Amino acid sequence: MTGTLLKIVGLTKAYPGVVANDDVSFNIQEGEVHALLGENGAGKSTLVKMIYGLVKPDSGDMAFKGTAYEPSEPQEARARGVAMVFQHFSLFDALNVAENVALGMAEPPKTRELAERIRTVSEQYGLPLDPWRLVGDLSAGERQRVEIIRCLLQDPKLLIMDEPTSVLTPQEVEILFATLRKLKSEGTSILYISHKLEEIRALCDEATILRLGKKVGTCTPREVTAAQMAEMMVGSELHRPEREPTTPGDVRLALKDLSVASPSQFGTSLKNITLEVRAGEVLGLAGVAGNGQDELLAALSGEITSAPGMVVLDGTEIGARGPAPRRRMGLLTGPEERLGHAAAPNMSLTENALLTGAEREGLMSNGFLKWGKAKSFAEAIIERFDVRTPGTETVARALSGGNLQKFVIGREVMQRPEVLVVNQPTWGVDAAAAATIRQAILDLAAGGTAVIVISQDLDELMEVSDNFAALNEGRLSEIKPAKGLSMEEIGLMMGGAHGMEVAHA
Amino acid sequence: MIFLEKRPQPSKTLSYITPVLAVLITMVAGGLLFAILGKDPVAAIRIIFWDPLFGEFAFYYRPQLLVKGGPLILIALGLSLGFKAGIWNIGAEGQYIMGAIAGAGVALALYPLEAWWIFPLMILAGALGGWAWAMIPALLKVKFGTNEILVSLMLVYVAENFLSAMAIGAMKNPEGFGFPGSRNLQQYPSAHNTEIIAGSGMHWGVAAAFIAAILAYVLLNRHLLGFQIRLTGEAPRAARFSGVKPARLVLFCMGTAGALAGLAGMFEVAGPAGQITTGFNVGYGFTAIIVAFLGRLHPIGIVLAGLLMALTYIGGEAAQSALQLPAAAIQVFQGMLLFFLLAVDVLTNFRIRITLGETA
């Protein structure tokens, strides 16, 4: 470590109604892996956007290699040697890897030449990737490699990575970490954003912890425990969900050889999925994003229909029925995408309560809506799940992601489902709210509901599940009891490291 | 520097103010247009907006307001349902024509029989005619995924040609000395759409428009179907998740719009127009699109917007004769209204922030 690469002094950025960053200062040394740690909404994203030139700070200064640094746009940041891998990829499905990389360059070389360079870099850093493959056919982990290689071709001094492991299997995480360590050894600094504490302990040299926009501490991750870091992040001790051991009852929901084509071109079709969930059981389904999770949820909610016998609820074949009849029978679902799928962004919370609750909660008679009752239902959800909102007439998009998530999950939980299927139930939710949601799911199971939790958060799944399986390219792995599963086994169930064979082809 | 900043919540107040603001801006810009054409802008605006309501000949113009506003409101109400759900029926003009032909067809077939049930039967036929014409783009969309905008629009031209064929062919008045056009239904008591109160302009079609406005209000605000229509427009994926069947909604919205447009056509041919002629349709079906948006796709808004549009029609004609304004200038003026409405619409979802000096 030879000197300070990036010096940040007193960065402040306020949005209407919220201070995203309040007087944040820290330094990144050359060749250092620096962790930026904090809950959702702590201001991590705003901070890195300022470093990457996407957002202009209200006040504060930055210095890069000792000279003033005020990027007004990402291009300027890249020219100075700052590169960023976003959590959400900006790739075109219908183009191949090399073409995608070329799109991000000011003066791209010939595709053949570029492909050669991609291959060299990918071998050099142990990131197997075939430049000629269509991005639409790649797994999430491979797509991330495209983004990383795109950055590496710029020979960056500082690489920013935003929650890079949320889309990776444990094996893929190992590959990524090996790459990052190699980069570090060559003197590249890495700003690593995450809320996964064990990863940070394994990888990072220094950590800066943000809470509610303010820097609340620094630490050397290797020297503290994950629990200590969590406390700094949350500011208090965490409540762990508890559950009473129950004996599973009768089979409530059964999938028999469920195969459906994905409605979207680059979606993942489901192939021969067979599973059973019993009353009181929580089945956890892991899998890297884009391996059929959305399609499975849609096939269960009734948005995608199948042959009648492929989905059986309490002995009735319901594969061909739509969402409304399934809901009537007690099969409730919570999709991953909150805005636009689980909730209508420009409609009030009362209207969004009506969206799935109209029939089960008796919010209408003969097709005529009872607004008073709908409002009370919305109020009940807000109250029980501690949704922070000015009132029931606020539109859904005005709520923060975590609060809306509490609302849409709460809406299904409050309807006393017979079978509940949720996809990413705590995605983007702060730790305290996540604990509330998990506890609600466990309470439902204790009351005899059969629950399927689809999630990319392995810690969450291990916490709530009785049984565990993983989705990989639309297929379901063997279902195993969750207790006693090792990370190694889970990783293999998720498909191990995707695309490794390509590297050695 | 001027910035547009997205509001966390769409502003309720502004969504009521913007139509008024749009009318005011249209008056200013329209006045400029008239001034460039060498006419006195103040006089022109007065003739268009003031004289028909409160001028010397208001007793003649006021009933015209209802006569012209009625069909606009009726058609716009139907269109607004689809527009709310993102279903774009642009062919109300054709559905209006087919409703008129179907309604008049019943009357002409029964002529000269006099019976109480003829007029109700014509109403039914008018609604069915418009409905059937709208079902063509609706079914094509549901079955084959065709674009309803194109199909419904093209069918307007088919309907216009069909109208001409009827006026000079099957429906031609046998006692009409060879002139094109059908018998005049105003002279056929059982089929005549009379004024409910003589001299008021309030014929059965106007009554139907007001009833439809009330029903549309109840549907949109109190009924699950109306909720589903709004939900589909706001978030189609959430609507699917909620259990809305998109195909059913397309059929309902297109069908209702068609039926109401057909009704408007039938009331027109049996009342103010009196007969099927080649020039029977005067563009109500297209103007109703402006009315629907000017009224914010809200039933009460549409009633007000329909009356306002009728005013620009009547006042526009008066201005043409009084000031020799070209008819095209009046059409531009009406177009401006929609243009400015859409422009100021931005304000309901965004607020303007002006910062001085530095680029924030």
Automatic annotation (TrEMBL), chain B:
Q: Which GO terms describe its cellular component?
A: plasma membrane
> What is the predominant subcellular site recorded for this chain?
membrane
| Keywords from the named record | Cell membrane, Membrane, Transmembrane, Transmembrane helix
Gene Ontology terms for molecular function: transmembrane transporter activity
Record membrane topology? Multi-pass membrane protein
Query: Which chain regions cross the lipid bilayer?
Result: 16-36, 67-87, 94-111, 117-140, 149-171, 202-220, 249-267, 273-293, 300-316, 328-347
Taxonomically, the superkingdom here is: Bacteria
Pfam families assigned to the protein according to its UniProt record, in alphabetical order = BPD_transp_2 (PF02653)
Q: Which cell locations does it reside in? A: Cell membrane
| InterPro entries, per the entry | ABC_transp_permease
Q: What name is this protein filed under? A: Beta-methylgalactoside transporter inner membrane component
**Upper lineage ranks?**
Bacteria, Pseudomonadati, Pseudomonadota, Alphaproteobacteria, Rhodobacterales
